[in-house]
Design a protein that fits this description.
The structure holds two protein chains of two kinds. By secondary structure, chain A is an alpha+beta fold. Helices cover about 20% and strands about 35% of the residues of chain A. The chains are: A alpha+beta, B alpha+beta.
Chain lengths: ~525, ~450
């Protein structure tokens, strides 16, 4: 794939997934959506190696010897593998409400997560003190997953070279708040002046700087600097006594340079337009209708309907609806789905995963055939294959598990107008705010913030606020038309699973699916 | 230990003032968790953690910021506070930002609220936790229908939480609590590769109050089997019962427009509804901060204000909003509290089974999926699963359907509350029976 159409299409803002109950994962997108970032593009271009030396030892105040002794302590009771994950993360939020940039939040987290594996079992402990004493005590706690005498010794550590897909000139930790204030003020002005019915605008600019270092008993030593930029704009509009709200978010693995004037203006206008659009919207009819998904944020379909089911931990445990279906047809020909950590600067991209594996592009479904799950170390070992670089964790406080990165479907040959024209009566789904899936039963939902009805092949009235529900494998088999307009959503999407929240990306070209149940309020 | 946290918070307040802040609110917390996760007869994960953190709210020259860190080394803390004060000075002033009124700090509840189980937290250890997860699994596998089981996971954890809060205008507090959790999750076989899941759990402040492990395990399997063969029904309007364990999800959407920020930011269908009937008169909800052993029990809120029992809904009439000091000031009103503690409901006389019999025909909702609610308008739509009831008996399993409505009309069709407030949540909601509401299916 060499191009990403970056049209001004729908964007949404999505926010986060969190695990609710058991065996289900939820995505919720907050108010805003985001559209393609100007830096999008699915070709990996920036592969400047950062060199194989490790540079963070000073920052963490640890050295190889201390790591080596910690790893050995992890193995002291007979485990197969031990790992140390060091992280220093600084986050800032600056916000505007009622016309003033008058609030700011900062968070600093520093710590070490120590993981010890014996067979399929994991011992996990963390500390927020990187002294030798604390690291050894934490390793000793995690080591209790095994109950014997040492069987393996840690190999000596050698740093790997990590290509950088998201190099930035100035780290966020060196960007003064003075530089952020005018951007926020500009966004507010753009949104407010877009339409006089907009009565409230809130803007939040946030950034993260995460430095991680992974060392394990096989001798791997890898580090990464992960910058994240997020802008959220929320609007409230008032018109003839009715109030509506919507918004937009944009995010990238990038620095301050990401927020060009064009990007800010686009986000602000989209937030305003999306809000005022709702004044003319009603509830769709309750019942089932064929659904055409607009490109972009609708990629949440892939995330919920099939993505989670292809995370290998659920398959290793036999609890996914996709367990034992590798090599089988799960979608019509023409449907190819990737999960990709290598898209420069996209929100779900990673130079290394949180187990120290280099970023990869994984083909999940190729021309309708299920090819691969997403693996971390434990599942890769279980299936006797290489990890797909999908082991991710929210922070040093959590063990890594298989997670999505940027999940998208490749272009087909249709044009979008042709697809809309082909539907006599249906729903054109444009903006989603959140979703959830039940891994075992395969039932997924997503919440339609707005869309349009399709009548006799034409887009007609605007509809809003309805939950869509379907069965993932069943719906995937009905994807019979795929357009050539892939759009990657670049809002601040989060995915929640196993109590951990991760930034993710996704995208979709316009596609036509079979009927889904639409939770409208009208009989 | 709580004394140590209190001393730390006081030191942070003094240090922040020295750095130039006029108003400071500091909280220090320490949380310890030990957890065992067990799956299919084997240890899956052991997790041990102790988390320490500081949160500090600063008011500097009429400006506001909020900051947190887990790096409490003295030299790091000193720099953290200097940076935070400097950053705050750059912001626009905000006359509505202030610490809570000191008059609201007094008359704190003094009795023993039984939030800390000394014998429980002392007695529990790795051996006990492993025994519990094994017992949960064997109960799940011993339930009727166990031949359909694909996988059973169980979990046991205990948590110790301590915190302190100090405000520079004359408030200090420290508290500690324990919580014990057991849970089980069962997956079972169904057609078309489907694997319905069922789960159950208990969470209690006192270890000896936890539900029987045999009950928790069997309940997970029973609930998984309820999902076998589930399918959507035709769309229509019919009566329903929402089971207590899942009802809080819908209620949350009725509460969020009552929060100060949503009201002030014009995202609230409850902004002008105080004193008006918004639900059926059988529903009353009271914020009850001083319930012994309650999961939301507290004597002061996040701003340090003394908590007090406050009606939210009385016989269906909206009585109060959740207003913190900031949004109350912006709205020109008196603060209540920024968030509820425990929500206690008016109760009914029937248990769930009798309610199902009374409904005769309709849908028993046992799970929700996805969905959302528009806080400005009250429109909501959410995925459901459950059982179709005829003549008071379950006749088929239902999934892939949605429930939709508007909160301002939906809650008026509430017909009955159960006698079964859900014990494992600070929202102690009973099962709820509604008259005809809109479902979409196939």
């Amino acid at each position: 794939m060499s191009k990403t159409p970056s049209k001004d299409g729908t964007v949404d803002r999505r926010d986060f997934l969190k695990v609710v109950g058991a065996g289900s994962a939820v995505v919720s997108m907050p108010v805003l959506a985001a559209s393609c970032t100007p830096k999008g593009g699915l070709t990996r271009t920036d592969t400047t190696p950062r060199g194989a030396h490790t540079t963070y030892f000073d920052q963490f105040g640890v050295d190889k010897g201390r790591l080596q002794r910690t790893l050995a302590k992890g193995l002291s009771r007979g485990a197969d593998f031990s790992e140390v994950f060091l992280q220093h993360k600084v986050s800032h939020w600056v916000g505007m409400e009622d016309g003033e940039v008058n609030r700011a939040y900062t968070n600093v987290a520093l710590g070490a997560g120590i993981r010890v594996i014996k067979g399929d079992a994991t011992g996990y402990a963390y500390c927020e003190d990187l002294s030798e004493k604390a690291l050894l005590a934490t390793a000793s706690t995690a080591a209790a997953v095994a109950d014997g005498t040492p069987r393996v010794r840690p190999a000596s550590l050698a740093a790997i070279s990590v290509p950088n897909q998201y190099s930035i000139d100035v780290p966020w930790t060196d960007v003064s708040i003075h530089k952020k204030l005018p951007l926020i003020q500009r966004v507010e002005k753009y949104a407010r002046s877009r339409d006089k019915r907009i009565i409230k605008v809130t803007v939040f600019l946030s950034d993260e700087t995460s430095r991680i270092l992974v060392a394990n008993s096989t001798g791997l030593l890898a580090e990464d600097h992960q910058p994240m930029a997020v802008l959220k704009v929320s609007c409230v509009g008032e018109h003839k006594g009715k109030t509506e709200s919507s918004g937009q978010s944009i995010s990238a693995m990038d620095g301050l340079a990401y927020f060009s004037d064009a990007v800010l203006k686009k986000a602000a206008w989209e937030a305003a337009d999306r809000t005022t659009l709702l004044f003319g919207a009603g509830s769709p009819p309750a019942g089932t209708l064929p659904v055409v998904l607009a490109p972009g944020v609708t990629g949440i379909l892939l995330h919920e309907a099939i993505g989670h089911g292809m995370e290998a931990d659920f398959n290793r445990k036999g609890t996914s609806i996709y367990a034992n279906l590798i090599g089988k047809r799960i979608a019509p020909k023409g449907v190819t789905i990737l999960d990709d950590g290598t898209n420069p600067r996209l929100r779900g991209s990673i130079n290394i995963d949180d187990e120290g594996n280099l970023a990869q592009k994984t083909t999940l479904v190729e021309d309708g055939i299920l090819r691969s799950y997403m693996h971390d170390r434990i599942s890769a070992r279980h299936y006797k294959i290489e990890s797909t670089g999908s082991g991710r964790r929210q922070s040093f406080r959590f063990p890594p598990v298989p997670r999505m990165r940027n999940t998208y479907m490749l272009n087909g040959k249709r044009n979008p107008e042709e697809i809309i024209r082909s539907v006599k009566k249906g729903l054109y789904a444009e903006m989603f705010s959140n979703g959830q899936v039940s891994i075992g039963a395969g039932n997924f939902t997503f919440y339609l913030k707005h869309g349009r009805m399709i009548e006799n092949g034409k887009l007609t009235s605007v509809v809003k606020d309805a939950n869509l529900i379907g069965n993932g494998p069943k719906v995937l088999l009905t994807v019979d038309m795929v357009a050539n307009d892939l759009e990657i959503y670049s809002g601040a999407g989060y995915c929640g699973k196993d109590g951990q929240r991760m930034p993710v990306g996704f995208g979709l070209p316009t596609i036509r699916c079979g009927a889904m149940s639409i939770g409208g309020r009208k009989s | 230990m709580s004394n140590k946290l209190l001393t730390q918070a006081k030191e942070v307040v003094l240090l922040a003032k020295k750095k130039g802040a006029q108003g400071v609110r500091a909280s220090v917390h320490r949380r310890r968790e030990s957890r065992v996760e067990w799956r299919n007869g084997k240890l899956d994960r052991l997790r041990e953690s102790t988390r320490v953190g500081l949160g500090v709210t600063l008011l500097v020259d009429g400006r506001y910021s909020s900051n947190s860190t887990s790096d409490l080394r003295p030299e790091a803390l000193e720099k953290f506070l200097s940076d935070a004060v400097a950053m705050t000075k750059v912001l626009a002033p905000d006359k509505h930002r202030k610490l809570a009124d000191p008059a609201r700090y007094g008359k704190r509840h003094a009795g023993d609220l039984k939030l800390y189980d000394t014998p429980g937290i002392t007695a529990v250890n790795a051996v006990e936790r492993k025994k519990a997860v094994r017992a949960l699994e064997s109960a799940a596998r011993g339930a009727p229908g166990a031949t359909k089981i694909i996988s059973v996971s169980s979990r046991c954890s205990d948590n110790l939480s301590e915190s302190s809060l100090v405000c520079s205008n004359g408030m200090e507090g420290a508290r500690r609590s324990t919580a014990f959790v057991v849970s089980a999750v069962t997956y079972v076989k169904d057609k078309d590769h489907r694997k319905p899941v069922g789960w159950w759990y208990g969470v209690e402040r006192h270890r000896d109050k936890l539900p029987a492990l045999t009950f928790v395990g069997r309940e997970a399997t029973r609930r998984a089997l309820l999902g076998v063969g589930a399918a959507p029904m035709a769309s229509g309007r019919f009566p329903c019962i929402i089971e207590n364990a899942v009802a809080a999800r819908l209620l949350g959407w009725l509460l969020s427009p009552a929060f100060g920020r949503n009201i002030q930011q014009k995202r609230s269908f409850l902004a002008d509804k105080i004193g008006q009937q918004i639900t059926s008169p059988i529903l009353s909800i009271t914020d009850s901060p001083h319930l012994a052993e309650g999961l939301g029990t507290r004597t002061y809120d996040g701003e340090g204000m003394t908590t007090r029992k406050t009606p939210f809904l009385a016989a269906g009439v909206l009585k109060s909003h959740f207003l913190d000091t900031y949004y109350a000031s912006k709205l020109g009103r008196t603060p209540t509290t920024g968030s509820p503690s425990n929500l206690v409901f008016s109760g009914g006389t029937k248990d769930l089974k009798s309610m199902v019999t009374a409904m005769s025909t309709g849908l028993l909702i046992t799970g929700f999926s996805g969905g959302n609610s528009n806080p400005a308008t009250g429109d909501f739509s959410i995925g459901i699963k459950g059982q179709w009831i005829e003549k008071g008996q379950p006749v088929r399993s239902v999934s892939e359907m949605n429930l939709a409505g508007n909160h301002l009309t939906f809650w008026k069709s509430l017909r009955e509350l159960g006698n079964d407030p859900f014990p494992y949540s600070s929202t102690r909601i009973p099962s709820l029976r509604f008259d005809k509401v809109q479902f979409s299916g196939k």
